[in-house]
């Protein structure tokens, strides 16, 4: 593929105590076949010595570092994007990786004015391995569940039309909430049918610690942030992976077993 150099890409990397993985993440960006990019790292108040030392001693090319008090991933991303010089934005967490051709292929597609967001398939590594193929995009389906990886490319000018990543989503689902803001007025989503993003699965992370109660609360917050959008569409909640997770959960099955005798008794008493 011909290397496209017309549009600069700003790769945004929030970092909170991820020094163990950060060099590998940066290396995956610096080895891109597409060379017109910058890297903006936001040190979100890291406290571990390894991360602080790595950032203080860093001399990565095309890279700038912003140090802030711990404010959460949403504030960190917003701050970096607001200072970005690139026309295209790619968020990347400080422990994940991208394939060498990610930028080249995503930029080539985003140059199409009808496309607002470029995403791709995912390969898990670390504590869990496997390929995750994203579902087909529609705005109605996006209302029911997140359909894109957080490391998807979009235009900075489109970001400027939104409130950015909403800080009230700092506990999780912030990327899903942002995609709703970005795409609520239209715009195509293009998924590259290829694994170009590598998602690190760790024993403990913000994602793995989302229990059912927290998940429900965060989904409610997504709804509260986009009430008008939800009011203007209808969607089948059974498309939601969280709904399916709940139906298959031990708590749901146990509750159903316990309630069955009660329901039978109520049915008998109604006669």
UniProtKB/TrEMBL annotation:
Residues 10-136 form the Glycosyltransferase 2-like domain. CDD domains: Glyco_tranf_GTA_type. Pfam families: Glycos_transf_2. InterPro entries: Glyco_trans_2-like, Glycosyltransf_2, Nucleotide-diphossugar_trans. Gene3D superfamilies: Spore Coat Polysaccharide Biosynthesis Protein SpsA, Chain A. This is Glycosyltransferase family 2 protein. It comes from Flavobacterium azizsancarii.
């Amino acid at each position: 593929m011909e290397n496209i150099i017309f549009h600069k890409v700003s790769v945004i990397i929030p970092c909170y105590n991820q020094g163990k993985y950060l060099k590998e993440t940066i290396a995956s960006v610096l080895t891109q076949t597409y060379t017109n990019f910058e890297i903006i790292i936001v040190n979100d108040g890291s406290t571990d010595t390894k991360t602080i030392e790595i950032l203080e001693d860093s001399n990565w090319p095309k890279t700038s570092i912003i140090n802030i008090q711990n404010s959460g991933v949403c504030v960190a991303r917003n701050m970096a994007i607001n200072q970005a010089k690139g026309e295209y934005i790619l968020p990347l967490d400080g422990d994940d990786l991208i394939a060498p051709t990610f930028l080249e292929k995503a930029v080539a597609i985003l140059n199409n004015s009808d496309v607002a967001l470029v995403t791709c398939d995912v390969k898990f590594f670390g504590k869990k391995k496997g390929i995750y193929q994203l579902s087909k995009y529609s705005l109605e389906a996006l209302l029911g569940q997140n359909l894109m990886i957080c490391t998807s490319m979009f235009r900075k000018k489109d970001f400027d039309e939104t409130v950015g990543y909403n800080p009230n989503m700092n506990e999780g689902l912030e990327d899903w909430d942002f995609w709703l803001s970005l795409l609520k007025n239209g715009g195509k989503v293009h998924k590259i049918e290829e694994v170009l993003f590598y998602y690190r699965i760790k024993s403990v992370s913000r994602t793995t610690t989302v229990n059912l109660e927290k998940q429900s609360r965060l989904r409610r917050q997504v709804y509260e942030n986009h009430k008008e959008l939800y009011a203007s569409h209808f969607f089948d909640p059974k498309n939601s992976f969280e709904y399916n997770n709940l139906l298959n959960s031990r708590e749901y099955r146990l509750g159903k077993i316990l309630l069955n005798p009660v329901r039978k008794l109520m049915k008998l008493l109604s006669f």
